[in-house]
Amino acid sequence: MGKLSNKVAVVTGAAQGIGEKIAERLLADGASVAMLDVNLEKLEQTAIELDGSGERARVWKCNVADAAEVKETFSAIYEQFGRVDILVNNAGITRDSFFHKMTAEQWNSVMDVNLNSMFYTCQAVIPGMRDQQYGKIVNVSSSSSWGNMGQANYSASKAGVIGLTRTLAKENGSKQITVNAIAPGQINTDMTRDLPEDVKRMATMLTPAARMGNPAEVASVVSFLASDDSSFVNGECISVSGGFLMV
Ligand code: NAI
Asked: In 3D, which of 116, 9, 127 has the Cα closest to residue 67?
């Protein structure tokens, strides 16, 4: 029996990277996991690798930036599992550019995927969580929420995630719902793979751990926040950055 046995979790952006490792970890903890992503092919492949039987891992193609798609997907999840105990809002994108060159498309697409999506997904689960008087929401922010060159859109979206997290924590805490965020530093995934070498070197230099993090090191913190081990932790944003944000 894992610590999340009989719990139902939803993980967005679960096809690869941090989301894949979060899904893997929550499955190992015993949860059933609804895995959502825009990239259905990769998502299906990942789900088979994580749970070949398909007993506890189910996939849904869902663009979390699309309100109607999110509504439809969560209806199907409730139909399948009957409840949602854990929501991990992980899907995110970057469209980096210096602000004076940034297009409205770059700004809006990042706000849509990284922040507006959480309005849709949280609205889909909070009424049910309030009714069942139980829920764990974990929102993925970023150390870039403190401001980062070339990432005005991304930083603003990730700072917005923290404001949303704290407000939902305050509004729903009395219903045994916790809402927390994590702020990863530089993690080894496709998102960071193509960053210029000097940018990666600089980030590593500013990280006391002197290396990039791995997705599994982020997933273990999500596992803590998704479980009753963190029952009195609410409205926090935990940095998972090897000490980057301390510097
Ligand atoms: P990734 O690019 O490897 O994976 C992101 C996943 O989200 C992909 O599977 C992608 O298909 C999916 N996705 C993108 N747009 C979507 C949409 N509209 N609807 C549904 N799914 C969508 O990225 P990574 O690194 O795993 O990032 C995961 C989260 O962690 C993101 O929110 C990112 O901002 C955050 N983060 C990542 C850091 C890093 O260094 N890799 C650092 C700080 C935060």
From this structure: 116
Q: Is 213 helix (H, G, I), strand (E, B) or coil?
A: strand
Question: Cα–Cα distance between 87 and 8 in angstroms, integer?
Answer: 9
CA-CA distance, 247 to 241, in Å (whole number)? 11
Unique residue bearing structure tokens 């929550």: 26
CB atoms within 10 A of CB 195: 15
Q: What one-character DSSP code corresponds to residue 29?
A: T
**Which tens digit of pLDDT belongs to each residue from 96-118?**
999 999 999 999 999 999 999 99
Q: What tokens appear for 80 in the block?
A: 């399948």
198 Cβ partners below 8 Å, 6+ apart?
none
Query: Predicted confidence band at 174 (pLDDT cuts at 50, 70, 90)?
Result: very high
- What residue ranges define each of the domains in the chain, with the CATH number in brackets? 8-246 (3.40.50.720)
Asked if residue 12 has its Cβ within 6 Å of ligand 1, the reply is yes
Catalytic, 120? Answer: no
In this structure, which residue's CA is closest to atom 10 in ligand 1? 13
Q: Does ligand 1 have an atom closer than 6 angstroms to the CB of 157?
A: no
